[in-house]
Amino acid sequence: MASRLYTWGRWAVRRRGRVIAVWLLLLAVVGGLGITIHGKVASDFTVPGIESQQAQDLLEAKFPAAAGGVIRVVYAAPEGSTLTAPETEAAVEAGLAKAAGISGVVQVTDPFKTGAVSADQRIGYADIRFHQAPADVTQESKNALAQAMAKARHAGLQVEYGGSAMKPATKVGGPAELVGVGIAFVVLALTLGSLVAAGLPLVTAIVGVAIGVLGVKFVSRFVEMTGTTTVLAVMIGLAVGIDYALFIIARHREQLADPDTDVEDSIARAVATAGSAVVFAGATVVIALAALSATGIPFLAVMGLSAAATVLVAVLIAVSLVPAVLGLFGERLRPKPRRPRAGRRERVPGSWGLTWARIVTRKPLIVLLAGVIALLALALPARELRLGLPSYASEPTASTQHKSYDLLTEGFGPGFNATLTAITDTSHIPAAQRTATVTDLRTTLAKETGVAAVSQPVPNADKTLFIMAVVPKTGPDAQATTDLVHRLRDNAPGVTKAGGTLYIAGVTAAAIDVAGKLSDSLPGFIAIIVALALILLTIAFRSLPVPVKAVLGFLLSIAASLGATVWVFQYGHLGGLLSVPSAGPVTSFLPVLLIGVLFGLAMDYEVFLVSRMREHHENTSDPAAAIVHGVARSGRVVSAAALIMAAVFGGFVFNEDPVIKSIGFALAFGVLIDAFVVRMTLVPAAMALLGRRAWGLPRWLDRITPDVDIEGAHLPQPAAAAEQPNLVSTR
After folding, report:
1. What structural domains does the chain harbor?
2. Which one, 159, 203, 653, 731, has least CB within 10 Å?
């Protein structure tokens, strides 16, 4: 691999004008397609086959009037006033009359006729139902509804909006994300020692992200995807794009520190060595993200494939556009020789990494035990991991969705926001028995522990489908509500015996179903990732102990990251600092996503760090010196890469979308733990304990394992090779 990339790197430098032009042309073409021909993103996380989705499909087919999107208008009178005061009631009625005339509205409920007013007469709600699906209700319709409610606001009422059609769109590019990019630039400048060199990874990464994300937007014209898909592509593409360019540029400048090194040869050699690691590590990220398709969940598969495509673009840019740009700058990127200062000892490049490696390997067993115990302690909260989808309680406290949630809880109890829908298909029950069967079911459901109220059954036109609202006593994020859904479904056999079918559906039930589906797919996905890691790392390092050690470290990183995520988002710690409005279950697809993404990133650091160890071991056959050399040469760049990734991911922690917020936190924390605790600390300690055994490979396996040479052992010697100590080796 290294020899071919060396030849490719030379070609990219010599044809740099053409390479840069091709990438700019690709950006223009893909950008034009993504901007002009794109689809509409969905706001719901749906999974075909789960009970709640089957019920929704049945409603759309047999009871379309009950399947459309709903905007729930919530009214609150000031303290000391009531909604039933004549002037207030008149203002509400006038607003609802205007709402009935909005395009797409098929039903408007009157709170004073349906009894949707709280016991103290201060809070009430009206449901505005549209014929479109929730995600298809237009912003123009929402704006018209807000204008229709102007008279109610002028009457002194607080008016807020909730319901299935009010899910906010996922946004990216806020101040917090830009701060993360700014921090990344500072880290690059400190690592590379040059503002010009620091700017190059950002520029090439932005080009890659733009191509990847705009390509994803174009594909959304043909494939249904959620708003989270695009944000995830931005998040991961930006982080890996900067890091991959950093690894190659850092290697190039390290080699240019020798004044006799030819610029073109240095670029080609950086592409061959660091670029080999980039290709291999990038391949692990791409495969891990693509493996999300194995979960059998369409929205997660699309999310993984979109992010994988963006990472693939980042890899291609790193080994083509980056060397072309480096060739364009030529000698301007050569580090200036440091002038010795009188009375001050000059620091050797990599000296802090050298010191750290010596500390870690001096007492490796103690370091290993202490690190493992610390990570297991961080992982303890993960034992109580609960999965779900965020309710409106997780939206920013200033949002109308959060305010409507709080008002409904205050006026009607915590379970009102968790209202379930019992749907009974009676098409195979004799017509004379349908009403009695549904009435008996309502009585049974109302007696269930945890149920606050059950509405009267509402039939469709031919009375083959009945729906009832079931209000729990607990909120949507409570474990008791999850247990209630399962108990309510225990009534299905009785309805089936009568010839009907019972479904328990609604937003809350759908969130519970999605969480259950993802929980079931988690063990199989972990098995795929572990097997993948063992195979890829065995090929990369021609060793069995190294892959086993890497996988165990990866599992510790995942456990610690999930533990911290549970501690913050489920337990509610640091909510004020991180702007988490309320504690609740962890986003249902976060563990699967975290495992896929963090696996690829962890393997990045493993490859870059251990490849330097193997490179030195191949040259000296000294395992102890190889460990110290690897950390000394790669520690600075790996640390910088981790800080950059954490800064980029951390910027998304302050995104208003609760899903993006939790993903950003889990990835940022996971990257820091994996890079600094596992790779920079536990890996050298474990390698020191293993000694020569770390590079062992059974003969039968050695014969069938391909030699990919990511260290560049078969590259030609530099044209001007000077005698240098190990710490400044250009190999």
Report:
1. 51-166 (3.30.70.100), 176-334 (1.20.1640.10), 420-505 (3.30.70.1430)
2. 203
